[in-house]
Amino acid sequence: MTLITDVRLRRVLDSRGDATVEADVRTESGGFGRGIAPSGASTGEFEAVELPPEEAVAAAREHAVPRLVGEVHAGNQREVDSVLRGADGTENFSEIGANSAVAVSVAAAKAAADVLGAPLFHHLGGTFRGETPVPLGNVIGGGAHAAGSTDFQEFLAVPVGAPSAVDAAFANAAVHETVGDLLRERGHDPNKGDEGAWAAPLSDAAALEVLAEATDRVADEVGFEIGTGVDVAATELYDGEAYRHTDEVRLEAEQTEYVADLVEEYDLVYVEDPLDEADFEAYAELTERVGDRTVVCGDDLFVTDADRVRRGVEAGAANAVLVKPNQVGTLSGAVDAVDAAREAGYTPVVSHRSGETEDTTIAHLAVAVGAPYLKTGAVGGERTAKLNELIRIEADAT
Ligand code: PGA
Ligand code: ZN
After folding, report:
1. Which pLDDT score, from 0 to 100, does residue 251 have?
2. Mutate to test the pocket of ligand 1, among 136, 152, 153, 327 (most ligand atoms within 8 A of CB)
3. CATH of 134-396, one of 3.30.870.10, 3.20.20.120, 1.10.3470.10, 3.75.10.10
4. Band of residue 337 on the pLDDT scale cut at 50, 70, 90
5. Nearest residue CA, atom 7 of ligand 1?
6. Which residue of the set 50, 95, 195, 277 is catalytic?
7. Closest by alpha carbon to 376, among 216, 195, 222?
8. What's the CATH superfamily of 4-118?
9. Where are the extended beta strands (E) located within 208-289?
10. Contact (CB, 8 A) for 156 and 136
11. What's residue 398's pLDDT?
């Protein structure tokens, strides 16, 4: 029933107005699925390769489509994904592009779910999962996502006490609005960065102060706890020798100290990419210091690669794994990274990219794998597409 009969690829727009790859998959029995690849700005060195979309589309048409059409069942996700790997023939999808691969992988999963008449998260394995993840809301952005703003890339609201995902999503939106008000009260005229977060010429400390005030205010209003977190995206600050912040240059040990101090001072419940993507040892040191009180999440460190997760586990680096399907190129690869994390007691955090689209797959994936967190921004159509999908999933399941 789910035999693939047609795969189409095209170039479409992402939220930055850049091109990305969209794939449509059709099956014998009339099933249809569409997947769109997101795109990062602060991409990790060890990620699967995103090719220029036109090249990725042409290469996938040539190498992957003939091996899928009439040959593979969309319902067999492992086979779809291994055929994509085989058609590519490289370690990192540099032949057909991880952008084409992930678009086809997702489109096949949706086509199979369509044939089954089941929501995507059911098909991906979420039938028995009762809980929906807590959305992490990016409310102040800088780094590679907004010029002239903070050094850190993201300042996040983490509504850990929310009774439901819908309450959490609205709390994050309220924190976002409150941050905007507070910035204007302080004489700023904030812009918006790539993920809809506010951008203003703030020090990281000043941004943390504003974030704390906004989360406290909203927590009082909604009556549940809202923690705070950051994505440092530290690789973007690291020049091979030191971490170059606007106010200070920090050597590796100083960066570890600095982040550990911030965790204490601001009671951060979530810290992503605090150190360079290649530095498992420094991660281990930081995790040793603060891992019992905060989520230390590896994004560029792990790049959704199960082998890198296992390497990190061996080193004691981090205690959580960011999961971005396009970093590895297939849904199977993303699920493998989740499994590797789970095996070691690490927390999987399913995530969007800075360049996004209306595709809502990550909301389904987060529910399917039972991830405690879904990082997908706070406002903006391409972000709320995922949040609204999560709200629908939660409403249907309860
Ligand atoms: P990116 O940013 O999509 O630009 O890599 C998101 C993140 O670093 O988490
Ligand atoms: Zn990140």
Report:
1. 97
2. 153
3. 3.20.20.120
4. very high
5. 353
6. 195
7. 195
8. Enolase-like, N-terminal domain (3.30.390.10)
9. 227-231, 243-244, 249-250, 270-272
10. yes
11. 57
Instruction: Specify whether the CB–CB gap between 15 and 194 falls below 8 A.
Output: yes
357 within 8 A of 36, measured Cβ to Cβ = yes
- As a whole number of angstroms, the distance between CA 377 and CA 390 comes to 13
Sign, CA dihedral 43-46-47-48, equals positive
Q: Which two tokens stand for residue 96?
A: 């057909």
Ligand 2: distance of its center to the CA of 231 in Å? Answer: 6
Atom of ligand 1 nearest to the CA of 43: 5
Task: List all residues whose CB is within 6 A of at least one atom of ligand 1.
Answer: 40-43, 153, 231, 233, 299, 351, 353-354
Query: Of residues 324, 356, 386, 394, which has the active-site annotation?
Result: 324
In sequence order, what are the beta bridge partners of 154? 141, 231
pLDDT given at position 225 = 98
**SS3 (DSSP) at 346:** coil
Phi-psi region of 30 (alpha: psi -120 to 50; beta: other; left: phi over 0): left
The Å distance, Cα 43 to ligand 2 centre, comes to: 9
Ligand 1 atom closest to residue 273's alpha carbon, by position in its atom list:
8
The residue extents of the domains of the chain are: 4-118, 134-396
What predicted TM-score, i.e. pTM, was given to this entire model?
0.98
Whether 110 is a known active-site residue: answer no
Q: Which two tokens stand for residue 320?
A: 């959580």
Residue 126: the pLDDT is 85
Ligand 2 mean position, distance from CA 63 (Å): 31
Looking at every residue in the chain, the average pLDDT score rounds to: 97
Pairing state between β 270-272 and 32-36: unpaired
Q: Is 324 a catalytic residue?
A: yes
**Whole-number Å distance between alpha carbons of 253 and 238:** 13
Block residue for tokens 């706890």:
225
Q: Tell me the pLDDT band of 330, cut-offs 50, 70 and 90.
A: very high
Q: Which of 353, 359, 383, 386 should be mutated for ligand 1, with most atoms under 8 A from CB?
A: 353
